[in-house]
Amino acid sequence: MKKGIPAVLLTAVCLFNAVAFSACTQPQGDETVEPEKMTYWDLYRTQAQKTPAPQGKALYKASYGYTLVSEQGYGGFSYQYRENGAYYDMTYAEEAWQGGGARMQGGVMAASATAEAVRTFTAPVAGNAHVYGNPRLVNGTHAYVQILLGGEVVAEYDLTDAYGVYHSHTLALSAGEEVRFVVSGEGEVYWNPTVDYTLAEETLLHHTVDGYYGDVHPFYDENTGKLYMYYLSTGMQVNDRAERFSSLLTVSDDFIRYTDTPLSMDEENPPEQELYYALGVYVDKEGRYRSSYGKGSYAGGSVSDDLLVWQNAAQPYVDEADGLLKYTWRAYFDEGVYSGRDPDICYDAQTDTYYCVVMNYYSSAEAQGEKSLALYMAGADGRFSTKSVRLVDFTGRGDPECPQLKKIGDRWYLFYSVYGTGTAGNVGNLSYRIGDPGVSPDRVDWNSKTEYALEGGDVHAAQLCKVGDFWYMYGWINYTPHTNVWGGYLNLAREVYQREDGTLGTRCDEALTELLNMGRVATFRADNVSTDGMTADGTQFTSDREGGTAVLDGTYGRSYIKAELELGQDAADACVTLSQNGVTYRVGVERRSGELFLVIESGSVGCSVPVREADKFSLTVVADGPFLEAYLDGGYTLSSNTRLAGEYTLGITGGKGAKIAADVFKLADYNNIFD
C-alpha cells in the first residue's frame, strides 16, 4: 500500500489514477475544467486488491487484513482497544474500527484519552517469525508504541516525527499466541507490521533481467500510465535465449517493479531490421508510436499501435529534388557520411517538425576518424532531409553514444554519453549541452556550448523520458563493479529538472524519497561511536585533523543514510563511509584542486560528478546491498555498483574542520516498499 494514504482512500486514488493521464479538458456545463496535474505519487500508485487470507507458515501483513476487508481476524489480524489493562474488540463503523474512543482506519491507528489502539496478530502455527514494521506519525506531535508478545514487552518506542522507527525482531511463536501492536498518545500513527514465518531475505531494489539490461530506452505512455523500458539484449540470457542486440522489453506500472513483456514483429509488414527494431520510442503527430534504428547509410523506422507489435513504417515516394525513389520515416545520411548509428527522433508540435539526432562517421576509420553528432529534419509527412546540420564535432574523442534531443521549457538540450568516460573506460558519464532560449536545435551553435555532466561514470548510456510534466533518467549500472562490461542493473527512478539558469539538476523525487525510508535505526552520537580524530557535540561531529573518523557501533544491513555536511573553506572532504571485509567506500563531498565533487570512491576506483561551491550540504545515501546511490542538495546524484556485500560498518570521515551529523534509517526492499 502507498505510504501516507489511508486504505479507505486507496480505491478512490486508484480510480483517479486510471483517468488522470488524459491531456484533454472536460466540459462542465458552460465551464471547462482543467484536469489535475500528475503528482509524484501518481507514478508509484498501487492497485488496491483483496489478498487471500494466508495460512500456516506464511507471510502475514496487517494490510492483508484491512485492504478491502472489514472482518475481525481476517489474515490473522484483529482490532482491539485496551482500557484499564483489559482488551476489548472494536466494532466496524463509518469505514473504521472503533472502540473506547480509539480508532483504526486502514493502517492509521489513533488512541483516545482513555483507550489505546491495539492491532493483534494471532499466530496460526508454532514457529519462528520475523516481525518488522515502521510505525510513524502522520498527525500530531507524539505517540508511544509497544510490541507485546503475550504480556511481555518486546520493544517500545517514542514517535516524534514522520520518519518513525524501524523495528525488527525474530520471535518464537506458539500456535494461538498473540502479538500486539499498541498505540497510545495524542499522535496518529501509520503502522503496517509484518509477521513473516518464511524468514525471507530482503530483495534488492535495483532491478535487472535475465542476461542483464543492455542499453535502455525508457518510454512513458500517458495512455496507460506505464513505463516501457525497451532495451538491447546482451545475449547472456540463461532461460529464453535472445540474440545479442535484440529489442526486449520490461514494463512497470509503479516505477519500482518490472514485468518481462514480449515484443513481436507484425507478420504481414515486419520491420526491415530484425534485431533492434524498437528502442527509442516517440509519439508522432497522429498519436502513433514510432521508433528508429541505424541501418548504416540511413536511420530506419518502425511503427506500432500498442507498443508491443511493430511494423515497417517506410512508405515509398519519389524525391522531387533528385528524382530518386525513397521512403518515409527514413533519415538518409548526408553526402560524405560513411555510416551512422544510434539515431533518436523526437517530434516538436510547436514547429510541426521531426528531429533526428544521430552519430555520423565521415571515414571508414569510424570511431578513430572524423565524426560528429548530426541533425536531420522532417515535416509532418515523415520525409527527412538528406542534408544534415552538424551539431558537435567529436573527432579525437570517444563516440557520443545514445544521443538525444529534448525540449525542456523553452530550450533544447543535447544529451550523449561519451565512450571512455565510464567504468574502466567504457560508455558512461551522461553529458549535456544547453540550447539558447526560443531557438530551434538546428540554429544553435552547439559546438560553442559548455558540456555539463549529469551523472558519473557508473550509470551507462543513460536516456531521458518525459513523464507528464516531469523528466526521468535511466541507464544501466555495470553488473560487475569497476570493470568494463556491457549490461547491468537499472538505477532507481531519477528525476531531472531545469534550474532557472537553464542547467539541469537531478534528484530522488519526494514520493520515492518517502517510500525508501522505513524508519530510524540509529543516530551518530558520542555514546554509540568509536572516534579517531573527531570530537562530538551532541549529534554533530567535528574532525580535528585530516581523515578524522567516527564509526557507529555494530553492523547494519541495507540502509538509508541522511547526513548534514559542512566543509568550510579548508576541509578536503566530508563523507559517509561504508565498510565490509576490509573494503571501505567514501560517499560525500570532496575538494579537488579548488573544485567540489560528489564522490563514491574506494581507493583508486569509483566515480564522481562536479557540484557547485557551497559550505553546507545535505547528503542522502541509499545503500542497497552492493549498490550505492547518493543524492546531494536535491540537485546532484551519483550511482555505483561496489564490492560491498552483506552487513556494513557505517561511519563518517572528514578533513580538518569538517562538521558532520548523520542518521541511519532502514531501506525498504522490493517486496515491502509499498507497505
Measured between the Cα atoms of the first and last residue, the distance is: 5 Å
The major beta sheet can be summarized as:
8 strands, antiparallel
Mean pLDDT, as a whole number? Answer: 94
Count all strands and give the number: 58
Shape: globular
Structural class: mainly beta
Question: What's the structural blueprint in terms of helices and strands?
Answer:
Elements: H1 7-19, E1 26-28, E2 31-33, H2 40-43, E3 59-61, H3 62-66, E4 77-83, E5 86-89, E6 91-93, E7 96-99, E8 102-105, E9 108-110, E10 116-122, E11 127-133, E12 136-139, E13 143-149, E14 152-159, E15 167-173, E16 178-184, E17 188-190, E18 194-196, E19 213-221, E20 226-233, E21 247-252, E22 259-260, E23 264-265, E24 281-283, E25 289-294, E26 298-304, E27 309-312, E28 316-318, E29 325-327, E30 331-332, E31 339-348, E32 353-361, E33 371-378, E34 389-393, E35 400-408, E36 411-418, E37 430-434, E38 452-453, E39 459-467, E40 470-478, E41 488-490, E42 494-498, E43 504-507, H4 510-516, E44 517-523, E45 529-532, E46 534-537, E47 540-543, E48 548-552, E49 559-566, E50 573-580, E51 583-592, E52 595-602, E53 605-611, E54 616-624, E55 627-632, E56 636-641, E57 649-654, E58 659-667
Parallel strand pairs: 23-27
Antiparallel strand pairs: 1-2, 3-18, 4-5, 4-10, 6-7, 7-8, 8-9, 9-17, 10-16, 11-15, 11-18, 12-17, 13-14, 13-16, 19-20, 20-21, 21-22, 24-25, 25-26, 26-27, 26-30, 28-29, 31-32, 32-33, 33-34, 35-36, 36-37, 37-38, 39-40, 40-41, 40-42, 42-43, 44-58, 45-48, 46-47, 47-58, 48-57, 49-54, 49-58, 50-51, ...
